[in-house]
Write a structure and sequence with these properties.
Largest sheet: none
Order of helices and strands: HH
Number of strands: 0
Shape: flat
Structural class: mainly alpha
Number of helices: 2
Helix content: 55-70%
């Protein structure tokens, strides 16, 4: 199922040491896109 996908993405995001604008935008877009289909 779809449960847990956002949580896994957040774990991956937090593991990135050098977060920049691209990583923040990618994460924001993923959460927005994913939340539309829940």
């Amino acid at each position: 199922g779809k449960c847990g996908s956002v949580e896994k993405a957040q774990i991956a995001f937090k593991s990135i040491d050098d977060r920049d604008t691209v990583t923040y935008n990618t994460m924001s877009e993923y959460i927005y896109f994913y939340s539309r289909f829940i």
